[in-house]
Amino acid sequence: MINERVTGSPIIRTALPAEAERIAALHHRARATYYPDGLPDDGTDWTAAWRGAVERPDGHVLCVVEQGEIIGVASFRTPEGAPAETVKLFQFHVDPGRWRSGVGTALHAACVEEWRADGRRTAVLDVHVDNRRAQAFYARQGWTPDPENPPAEGDHHLHLRYAVRPEG
Length: 168
Hints:
Layout: E1 4-6, E2 11-14, H1 20-31, H2 46-55, E3 59-66, E4 69-77, E5 86-94, H3 103-117, E6 122-128, H4 132-141, E7 144-145, E8 157-163
Parallel strand pairs: 5-6
Antiparallel strand pairs: 1-2, 2-3, 3-4, 4-5, 6-8, 7-8
Helix pairs in contact: 1-2
């Protein structure tokens, strides 16, 4: 388990329940960038949702902290009904002011390191079809369309897959 790691100036570590409000604010700023009509309000209490994700015994939330500010966050766990060697990246956000600065790449590498340590072999995620920036980021990291989960009619997400290879 990754508890704390220094990667240059920012620190990547496990998120704390008390940070849920700050994580939810980052989540909102990042998601708002790819909704042309504004972020839809589906009634979700994102602070409570993030607190729940951080407290889940079967999940993990990593955050990137620089000078006390959370600038990146990733949430992952085994999805229900999936084999134990599969992990789903449920949320992955970098503060828009830090895009293209290496924060996302470092956070992704920390996720992969944890997945390897946990014996994961496959990672999956869903990305919004309008989020071209994220799709390009994931492609650069080695994610590909999931052949076992093609988009359904009317689905607004693409399903991607990542092969978690052992080190070496």
